[in-house]
Every structure is written in C-alpha cells, then in structure tokens.
Write a structure and sequence with these properties.
With 667 residues, this protein is mostly helical. The protein folds into 4 domains: 16-26 and 428-661; 58-181, 3-Layer(aba) Sandwich (Rossmann fold), CATH 3.40.50.300; 187-254, no CATH class; 269-339 and 342-377. It is built from 29 helices and 10 strands. α5 (187-197) packs across α7. Residues 627-667 are annotated as: Disordered.
C-alpha cells in the first residue's frame, strides 16, 4: 500500500493475533467516549480560526494577496519569520469557505503524504494550505517542481491554494506572478487589537507605556506580541485594587525573564513532603477550587507512598496556612492561585527538570485525578491538567513518553474520563508544531500494525476522526481504514470512516481507490459495501460531475463489486445491491451507469457468473416489492435484464439461462 477514531465500545474481549496474517483487534467493552459529531477538537479548531480572523491586523500585502487568490486560485506568501504570514494564510482561506470542499493542510515530505502531482489530491472547492515556511532547500525545490501540476488541479476543481514559502528562497519565473510579500503590521496596533479582543477596555491601554514601548521596539514576532497581550490580560485579572495598566504590563514583563534561580531557591526552602506535594498540586491544578487542591495533594502523597501524617487532625496546619507558606492563597470564590503571575508554569518546569524520578508518579496521579467525581472537577479542569502534563513531555522532547502514557491509560479496563484524557494527551502531541509529525506516524503504526490492548482502539478512532481529520483528512482516512479492517465486535471505526468520506467526494474516491488496489478481506468488502453509497456516487458536486461518471471511480466500483459478488454469500450483499438498484431508478444516465457497473462486476465472476446474474435479478424483483414507485422500479428491472442479456450475448428479450437460475430466481 502506498499510503504510507469517538466511539462506544461493547463486549469484554482482548487483543489476539490470528497467525501470520493481519493482526485482529478485539476491543474491550467498558467506558464510553462521546459520539462522533460532539467533537470538542473540531470546535477548538473552528474557534481558533475565528479568533485569527478577529485579531488579525491586515499586514501590508494582504489586499494584494486577496486579489491574486481570488483571481487565480493560488497565492504564494513570502515574508520574514514573525510577520504573521501563516495566520494571514489561514484567514485568506477562511474567506473562501463554501458549501462544498474542505480545509486541509498539505504535508509534502512526510512518509504517507500523496504527491503534489496527484490530481486526486484536490477536491471540488477545497481550501489547501501548503506551509513550507520552515522547509529546507530540497523540500522547497521539490515542491516548486510540483506546483504547476498542483495549480492545474486547483483550477480545475475551483479550489483555492495558499503557499507559504521559505523567506528569501528562490522562486521560478513562472511562479512570480503568484508571489506576494507580507510585511509586519504595526506592532502597537497588533498589541491593542489583541487587548480589545481579550476584553480589556480600550481606555485602559490608550496611553503609551514604557514597558510596552521597550518590548515593541525590539520588533518581536507577532506570536510574542499576542502572548504578551494575553499575559497583560491575566495580570489585570490577578492585580491588586488600584493597580493600573502600567502595573499589569510590568507584571506581564516579569514573567518573561529567567526565574529558574529564584524558583530553585524557593523550592530548597520547602523541605517537607506534604508541602512539596501541595506546591506541585497547586502548580498542576492552578485555579482549581481549594477542596480539589486539598484532595489532590493528599492523593499525590498516597501515589508517592509518603508516610501518613501522625499529627492529630486538630493540631495540623490548616489549608490557608499551608498555602501561605508556598506563596499561594484562596480568592473569594474559593479557588487557589499563586501570588505571582505564571508562577505555576515555573514550578511545573522546575520539578520536571530537577526531579525526573517524579515524572512517572505525576502520570499516575494525573490519571487518578481525572477520575475524581468531585463537582468542582469540571471537564475544563481535567483538560487543563492533562494539557499541563503533556506540555512538560513536549517541552523536553519526550514525545515517546507521552505516547506511551496515553496508550497505558487506555490499555486496561478504565473509565470514560480516563479515555477522554488519553485522547487529549494524543491531541496535544498531534497539535505540537515540533512533535506533530512524529505523533501522526505513531498513530499510523498503531492503527495499521500494532497489537492494540484494552480500549486503546476506540481512543484512536476518536483521535483520527476528530483531531487528525480537522486539518489532515487524508491522513485520518488511511488510519481509520486500517482500524476498520481490523476491528471485530464493533463498527465504530467503520462508522467514523464512512462519516469522514461523506464530507468530501474526493475522500470517497480515495477510499474506493485504496480498496480497489488490493485483494480484499471480508472486513474490507464490508467497508466497500458501506462506503460505496450509491446516492453519494450519483450526486453532483462542485464541478457538476458525479463520482459515478469518473473513470477511476467506475474502475474501483467494478473491481470491488466483483470481489463482493464472488467472495460473499448473496445474503450478505443482497440489501446493498437492492439499494444500488433502487437508487438507479429515476437517476437518468447516472442510474444507467450504476446498472452498468454492477452488471460488469457480475460478468467478471467466472464460474459464478450465471448464478450471480440470477441473484442480481432476484434483488431487482425484491426491490420492486418495497419500492414506493413500483412502475419506475419495474422499468429498472427491465433495464437490468437487458444489460444482463447483452452481457451474456443473448437476444434482447431472452432471460438468463436455466443454469444461471439454479436457485429458481430467474424470470
């Protein structure tokens, strides 16, 4: 194969390997994940795009880029790193959103990505991002050589393509007319736009401030300006009464310095185990309710097998006193915060870096914490805790450890909360700009080749359907395909796969092509019967053509239908054939094509050819009995019979031979 899942799970089974062939995964029943369609990750992706549109200060060159993209379907953005060119690319594509087509990011250079020369890479109305801003010379040179073919497909499909090129790199003369230089927008205007979007009243930041002026004069990247604006917003929320904009900016600026020495000195003075456990807990659950902090700190001590406190309860320090000792406190709402802004992040980094033996225990403690049923442990708090743990793995380049943790949380009988936490761990890895490619490869290996334990398969279904599919639908398709062909006792991967191909004719064509290129197992035949929805095949899409009118789809359908008719008993495929024949009714020449495809498939069934024709005719007669428009369906049956007669080289009104009617289903 050249290509390189949210779900409910039922039935307690383990993973087995059935000899030298495929590894068949039996998914254990237990905890439930949310149904597909409730994806928080897709909402996050949509929210992030809406946010980019809201805060973008149109950089010099944005108007020209809009004009070139609208006129040619392609624009190549050049610009210095930090100019906001990638955000501009996302906004440009979002402005061309239509009812047809999907957004996706192309990833040339990754192992299982299709060639940019492949015309099947582009679907009708698609919005494609090719971000090569950090590409090395060889990758950019290869992409330039393929851009002509890619642009041709984009034009034919009425799609839109935005390329972000490496700044200062060579560009071919025939591509120059698509190139637009993006320059940095006014830094102060960007800063204020973010503050306004973050809800800071404009009267509070209109005066110039030396802290802001000093920062912006250093010409920081747009992402740093955005991050600083968010720090100012948070400093405002944590400020003392009477503090103003200048104090907020100073507090935000203070977090940008190196505080490692100060943090190390502070931690050295906190020697007792219970106090360190409280310090770590507040850092990991910063902003949580005091009841949650108290419970979680005790849970961390038990996880570490720390000796119990022998001091009588009423003689111990209360929580307020213990929080004061670690420079934290409880607000009027009962939630716990450190006094200094971003102190929690610095504490997390210190313990992760300087007490590495603690890491495995933090993973165990986090898994137990997300299982808490305390009313103050909300889903947002669970997600935040998991993201904070994941950030330490990713910050220190420990993607393998994060992947193993997610697998471990799913491999044994577990809870719904823990399975969702495992999905969130993998989402953090997949969305990381450095580790994302490695995580996509790990997910592929899990889906295609690895023996999956416990309920990890359903975690992968959700990850593929919701996280990967949001920006890399082709990658999600291949991974869901492998999960679907291996699953037993459930159809969640198959449902997710069919849901994905329903979003794009191009994806359905791609799946049919993948199926037609291999000897199909019974599971893969089942995938075909579900994915080859005849209604979707005859429905015209962006370029007014239907999939059934394309030669590649016709070839795939005939090949797969032949495998179904020759390899499965009629009782298995009869209902699908009846739907195929019913859909052909009233569909004009596209209906005729459906009949041609299934008759051609039956004609290739060698020694089963006659019996298969007879079974198809029986399906047509059965469809007549259930069709709302009996006369029209009878006409379809007659057309089918004529095509069968032609295939058998019989007279136009001759019925199939008796040998072809061994089951008594001939007319």
């Amino acid at each position: 194969m050249s290509e390189p899942g949210k779900t409910w799970v039922n039935g307690p089974r383990g993973s087995v390997h059935a000899g030298n062939g495929d590894i068949h995964n039996y998914i254990t029943v237990g905890a439930e994940l949310k149904e597909a369609g409730e994806s928080a990750f897709r909402r996050i992706a949509d929210d992030e795009l809406a946010w980019k549109r809201r805060v973008l200060v149109a950089p010099p060159g944005m108007g020209e880029a809009r004009h070139v993209l609208a006129g040619t379907g392609t624009v190549i953005l050049d610009g210095a790193p930090g100019s906001g060119r990638t955000s501009a690319a996302h906004v440009l594509l979002s402005e061309h959103h239509r009812d047809v087509g999907i957004f996706r990011e192309l990833l040339p250079g990754e192992e299982d990505e299709q060639s940019l020369r492949n015309p099947g890479l582009v679907g009708a109305g698609d919005r494609l991002l090719l971000d090569l801003s950090a590409a090395e010379f060889g990758l950019w040179a290869a992409a330039r050589a393929d851009l002509s073919s890619l642009r041709k497909a984009v034009h034919e499909q009425r799609a839109h393509l935005v390329v972000v090129m490496p700044h200062g790199s060579a560009i071919d003369s025939d591509l120059q007319r698509y190139r637009v230089e993006i320059e940095c927008p006014p830094a102060l205007e960007v800063f204020r736009r973010h503050l306004r979007a973050l809800g800071v009243p404009f009267k509070q930041y209109l005066r110039s401030d030396p802290t802001v002026t000093d920062l912006l004069e250093r010409r920081p990247p747009m992402r740093e300006i955005a991050a600083f604006a968010d720090l100012v917003r948070r400093a405002r929320g944590a400020a003392r009464t009477g503090d103003g904009f200048a104090e907020w900016c100073k507090a935000a600026r203070a977090t940008r310095g190196d505080r490692s020495g100060k943090i190390a000195e502070f931690v050295t003075g906190v020697r007792e185990g219970p106090q360190r456990a409280l310090l770590i807990t507040v850092a990991m659950l910063h902003g949580a309710h005091a009841d949650v902090i108290n419970w979680a700190a005790e849970r961390l001590l038990r996880t570490l097998k720390h000796p119990p406190d022998e001091v009588p309860l009423l003689q111990r320090k209360d929580l307020a006193e213990r929080l004061k000792e670690i420079c934290a406190g409880t607000g009027p709402d009962g939630h716990v915060h450190f006094r200094d802004l971003d102190y929690d992040a610095a504490i997390r980094a210190h313990f992760w870096d300087h007490m590495p033996e603690l890491r495995q225990y933090l993973g165990t403690w986090t898994a137990r914490s997300v299982d808490s049923n305390d009313p103050h442990v909300t889903q947002d708090l669970r997600d935040t805790l998991v993201a904070r743990l994941a950030s330490q793995y990713l910050r220190t380049g420990r993607g393998d450890g994060l992947a193993s943790l997610a697998e471990g949380w799913s491999a044994t009988p577990t809870s719904r909360n823990r399975l969702e936490a495992a999905v969130h761990l993998l989402a953090c890895g997949l969305n990381d700009p450095i580790e994302g490619a490695g995580f996509r490869e790990r997910v592929y290996q899990w889906c295609a080749n690895k023996r999956l334990k416990g309920e990890f398969a359903q975690v992968l279904v959700q990850v593929c359907a919701d996280v990967i599919a949001a920006s890399h639908p082709d990658r999600a398709l291949f991974r869901l395909y492998h999960l679907a062909r291996r699953e037993r006792g459930t159809t969640r991967a198959l449902q997710a796969l069919c849901g994905l191909v329903a979003t794009s004719g191009r994806l359905r064509r791609l799946l049919l092509d993948v199926l037609a290129r291999h000897s199909l197992s019974p599971a893969e035949l089942g995938i075909f019967l579900q994915a080859a929805d005849p209604e979707a095949l005859i429905e015209p899409f962006g370029n007014s053509r239907a999939l059934v009118e394309e030669r590649s789809t016709q070839h795939s359908a005939i090949t797969c239908w032949q495998a179904v008719l020759a390899g499965l008993p009629p009782a298995t495929w009869q209902q699908y054939a009846e739907r195929w024949l019913s859909t052909a009714t009233g569909a004009g020449h596209r209906g005729d094509l459906l009949l041609d495809l299934i008759v051609s498939a039956a004609d290739r069934c060698a020694d089963k050819r006659g019996a298969t024709f007879a079974a198809l005719y029986a399906c047509a007669r059965s469809a007549e009995r259930t069709a709302p428009a009996g006369a029209a369906q009878s006409d379809t049956t007659e057309r089918l019979l004529r095509k069968i007669s032609t295939a058998q080289r019989l007279g136009p009104r001759t019925t199939p031979s008796p040998t072809a009617s061994s089951k008594g289903s001939a007319p």
